[in-house]
Amino acid sequence: MSATARSSYHHGDLKAALIEASEEIIRAEGVEGFTLRKAAKCAGVSPGAPSHHFSGTKGLLTAVAIRVFERLGNELNVLSHSGIPARDLRTQALGYVKFAARHPGLFRLICRVDLIDFKDPDLMQASFEAMASYGHAAAAYFGHEPPDPQKRIFRPHMASAMATAHGLAHMVIEGRPALLFETPDPIGTFIETALPSILLATWPDRVSPTQERSR
Fold first, then answer.
1. How far is the first Cα of the chain from the last one, in angstroms, to the nearest whole number?
2. Within a 10 A sphere around the Cβ of 59, how many other Cβ atoms?
3. Cα distances (Å, whole numbers) of residue 74 to 112, 126, 130, 193
4. 154 φ, ψ to 5°?
5. Distance (Å, whole) CA 19 – CA 5
6. pLDDT value, residue 60
7. How many CB atoms lie within 10 A of CB 88?
8. Which residue, among 28, 30, 8, 27, has the nearest Cα to 18 in the 3D structure?
9. In the chain, what percentage of residues exceed pLDDT 90?
10. pTM tops 0.85
């Protein structure tokens, strides 16, 4: 039982202890190595406790995913804002990829629609809030209104912006940078050297009509 899970459990918060234990398993073994039995053992509780408190595997993993989205949001929402749409969008995308690189197992979890309940209201809210800054940056770059959680509208510009960052994130966690860089840390090298150039090529700084006329 981990120190954090043990502390949560001793303070009477069994749900928090199970979430913490599950997160530790996913960090170490990936979501493929997760089982309710392992979570119960890690938290030091009976094998039936996870199902009792979370209604099975999907319920517990959904609770973990909510916490992952909250952590992602905390990181993206504090990134610097320059007021330059292209630069802000690149900053958000870079932060998104860096989060995936630091937490590959947890990042894979929040992408698994088969393992978590994407219709859970708390998950939907957490995921929207996590990507709020990203959504605003993308909307500003493409000249659209920011995403509204009350309006379930397909926004091509947002889908495009998300697909770009999401694809780069998966390329990183799958180890593809090793094909490009023969360094002790190919992922770190890719993120620090190549990724900014890729994002600049994808979302270049736009020249305003006034600037264009002055050339």
1. 66
2. 17
3. 21, 11, 7, 25
4. -75, 125
5. 8
6. 96
7. 22
8. 8
9. 74
10. yes
